[in-house]
# Entry
Amino acid sequence: MPTYRLTLAYDGTAFCGWQKQEPPAPADGLPLATASAVHHADPSLPAPPGRVALRTVQAVAEQAVRQIVREPIILTGASRTDAGVHAHGQTAAFTCSDGTDPARHGGGWPLERGLDTLVRAINGRLPEDVLVSYAQPVHDGFNPIGDAERKAYTYTFHDHHRRPLFDRAFVTHTHHTLDADAMHTAAQHLVGEHDFAAFTQINHDRQHTVRTIYDLAVERTSEHRVRITVTGSGFLYNMVRIIAGTLHEVGRGKFSQSAIPAMLASKDRRQTGPTSGPSGLCLEWIHYPGDETGVFPPLLRD
# Structure
């Protein structure tokens, strides 16, 4: 049974994140638990009786793949991006039959049918805000989450008194003019292996909070844009957004460039900056054993 690795790009604005979610359906005419759930409920997605399916990238992409391979596959993603977070290089994988079992009535996807054909077929079933850019066969037991060696994210601020318009869903607006050089200097204290307990949600569900950041750079990419690029072994819940919020406070002069070591040592979330909004965050790529160094599956960019 072949296993396929997909590289996906998506605009996360209208999604409730990556992971499938099925909250209870309305009962006795009562609304769903939250306005967000009402807004993102998608009747076109399958859900168990008594529940509704929210519009998530996993649910939408999984449904598209199932329609193509004509089997009830499970699409497993490498990163559970939150609502409003975007991706250029999310990784997901599924296993299906090879198309030779007559009992499956032609279901599955044999390798000889072609990877480019598979990509085109899946994209033909996807909505306009998500797209598969690449597919490749991988070994049995490939684990998109556990096998990942490193990931890269970017976070982009728009620092100007006038808010952005046409790309407002892909940046975070701040009225403060940011000192990108100061932010970059402060960011270097985060590079290396550290306990990032101060840079994750207080009620996180991780057994340990030690992670490794391989590279963290802050640069001004245009007159009113500051971009943070971070590469690491893995990230805790909201870790990149808290790093972005903390560096934002450095950039506007609220925190000093040398404050980061004390924040790390404190292991106290209250000592770090705010959690920046989701719109400025983008998952850029995920690297696995066997991938060529510095070469990643093709990413979709305008």
Notes: The chain has two domains: 3-26+33-138, 150-287. Residues 3-26+33-138 form a domain with the Alpha-Beta Plaits fold (CATH 3.30.70.580).
